[in-house]
TrEMBL record:
Residues that, per the record, bind a divalent metal cation: H32, D34, H65, D174
Name listed for the protein in its UniProt record: Ribulose-phosphate 3-epimerase
Organism taxonomic ancestry: Bacteria, Bacillati, Bacillota, Bacilli, Bacillales
Organism name: Staphylococcus edaphicus
Positions bound to substrate: S7, H65, G141, F142, G143, G144, D174, G175, G176, G196, S197
Gene designation per UniProt: rpe
Keyword set, alphabetical order: Carbohydrate metabolism, Cobalt, Isomerase, Manganese, Metal-binding, Zinc
């Protein structure tokens, strides 16, 4: 079954504990935690102090998506502050292999992310090392953007690579996921969904969880 990680970027930060309780009750698989530095992406979001609070507030797995320059300087810290999974953009570092090793050495699941303009072949050399690949289906930096259809063919390419090489990584999608786009990403091989604005606009998180997980 497809796993669902709502993006806390669209949650109510004034009532974070209630939000986390409601997510647990709804049966989501974890929470997605978007870190933006104002350099790699043109926006600044949340960091370690909020991660500490989320870690205290839930036992759900926390999937940290680092949209930051020089991720090698920070991955250990995010692991020590409670991340269960950490993904880094291949575009953000010349040393993606080393950063993935750093994450794995902290006993945290390691993911690599590709922007809409980055081809799958940019990450081929490290696909046998990662636990998941995050295919951005919008340009990172903001919630509430429109899904980019052209990204779907990357899901086919990654599914084919998994089959041919007997690899087992999850394929995560992030950006513009809603009741209409979910069908195409899942049918093309996505196994993990991130949803922000579409998820949190619902009053009832159980209903939207069921819609997205199918
Ligand atoms: C965008 C972030 C996403 C964002 C998704 O840069 O990485 O995780 O919260 O939001 P929606 O689902 O609204 O596109
Ligand atoms: Zn994200």
């Amino acid at each position: 079954m497809t796993k669902l990680y709502p993006s806390l970027l669209s949650a109510d930060f004034l009532n974070l504990q209630q939000e986390l309780n409601a997510l647990e009750e709804a049966g989501v698989d974890g929470v997605h935690f978007d870190v933006m530095d104002g350099q790699f992406v043109p926006n600044i979001s949340i960091g370690l102090p909020i991660l500490d609070s989320v870690r205290k507030g839930t036992d759900l797995p926390i999937d940290v998506h680092l949209m930051i320059e020089e991720p090698e300087k920070y991955v250990e810290l995010f692991a020590e502050h409670g991340a269960d999974m950490i993904s880094v953009h291949v575009e953000a570092t010349p040393h993606i292999h080393r950063v993935v090793e750093q994450i794995k050495n902290k006993n945290v699941k390691a993911g690599v992310v590709i922007n809409p303009g980055t081809p799958v072949h940019a990450i081929c050399p490290i696909l046998n090392m990662v636990d998941y690949v995050l295919v951005m289906t919008v340009n990172p930096g903001f919630g509430g953007q429109t899904f980019i259809d052209g990204c779907v063919e990357k899901l086919d390419q990654l599914s084919e690579i998994k089959k041919v090489h007997g690899l087992n990584f999850d394929i995560e999608v992030d950006g513009g996921i809603n009741d209409t786009t979910v069908e195409s990403v899942v049918s093309h091989g996505a196994t993990m969904l991130v949803a922000g604005s579409y998820f949190f606009k619902h009053e009832d998180y159980k209903t939207v969880t069921n819609i997205l997980k199918g």
